[in-house]
Amino acid sequence: MRALYFLVIPVFNAFINAIINEQTAVSEQLSPQESYMKLSRLHGIASAILAVSVASAVYAQADMNPKQKGSYSIGVNIGGSLTSQGLKEDLDVPSLVQGLQDAVAGGKMKMSDDDMKKALEQLSTTLQTRAAAQQAVAEKASKDFLAKNAKEAGVKTTATGLQYSVVSKGKDAKAAKPKASDTVKVHYEGKLVNGTVFDSSIARGEPITFPLNGVIPGWTEGVQLMNVGDKFHFVIPPELGYGAQGAGPIPPNSVLVFDVELLAIEAPAAPAPAASPAADGAKKK
After folding, report:
1. What is the CATH number of the domain that holds 221?
2. Is 149 exposed, middle or buried (0-12, 13-18, 19+ CB in 10 A)?
């Protein structure tokens, strides 16, 4: 079983990462300064999932003890994640539950190690084939959208492929432009090309401040084109956004659409004043 254990974990890691992404999207709205998006790879959870017995009875929460609540919560997360990731069609839920129960019981399994290895390899191949097909579709859709948008009135395209248009200029035409090393204060709204809003400081009613060199490349480049007070519309290709990995509610190879208002360039924090020699001498006495 030890050899099979190491074969099972990589398959379940995909499910775990989906759970983490889904929970992150719900609990924390994605902000531009989170472009690094270091989602934890909690490989150890995979073995824990294999050790959970999923009860078939439906409990009222008031009748559940802490162990049942924890187990049920994991089951809900797994089921919801599988469904949201489009994996439902690949799984037979009763067999999945049976496998968990058999693993916990520790008795004889209904399949040999070799058969389970082959089944997992087949499932992995199916998932990879589907992901590749979906990625190809997403890449084509992104290219088509960018090509069409580039022809829209007022749209300019930079050497990197960033597309932008000026929505409105600020009152002061000579207002400062930020450098990549600056910290800026902005209002923004981010959408996918289908119009889905994945993040909005405007909706939250609270602008955000962040270092311009700590966000996705499309933001770093684009905001430097703005004067304080300007409002720009950005269309960011995947390679200047979250790329083939995606992030949270943003699928892989997504074109990102942002409306951004540059409110201010924040002054850097003043360094602490150096102690004078006289003060130092007084401290030594």
Report:
1. 3.10.50.40
2. middle
Both tokens assigned to 263 = 């409110």
pLDDT digit string, tens, across residues 10-42: 444 455 444 444 444 444 444 444 433 333 333
User: Is 145 considered catalytic here?
Assistant: no
Active-site position among 12, 15, 164, 188:
188
Instruction: Determine whether 199 is an active site residue.
Output: yes
* Annotated catalytic residue 9: no
Catalytic residue among 15, 164, 210, 258: 258
Inside any domain, residue 281: no
Q: Classify burial at 258, counting beta carbons within 10 Å of its beta carbon; exposed 0-12, middle 13-18, buried 19 or more.
A: buried
Query: Which residues neighbour 267 within 8 Å (Cβ) at sequence distance 6 or greater?
Result: none
Residues 147 and 80 in one domain: no
Same domain, 81 and 175: no
Residue 231 within a domain: yes
- Kindly state whether residues 9 and 76 are assigned to the same domain: yes
Active site residue: 216, 236, 250, 265, which one?
Answer: 216
Instruction: Tell me the pLDDT tens digit for each residue of 93-144.
Output: 899 889 888 888 888 899 999 999 999 899 889 888 988 888 888 889 899 9
Note down the domain range covering 184: 140-266
The first and second tokens of residue 239, run together, are 């390679």
Q: Which of 164, 198, 232, 234 is catalytic?
A: 198
Weakest mean pLDDT among 34-48, 101-115, 151-165, 213-227: 34-48
36 is annotated as an active-site residue: no
Task: Answer yes or no: is 116 within a domain.
Answer: no
CB within 8 Å of 171: residues ≥ 6 apart: 229
Residue 70 lies in a domain: yes
Give the count of domains, the chain.
2
Is 232 a residue of the active site? no
Catalytic site includes residue 216: yes
157 and 82 belong to one structural domain: no
Q: Which pTM value belongs to this model?
A: 0.60
Q: Given 199, 210, 232, 265, which residue is catalytic?
A: 199
Domain boundary, last residue among 110, 132, 158: 110
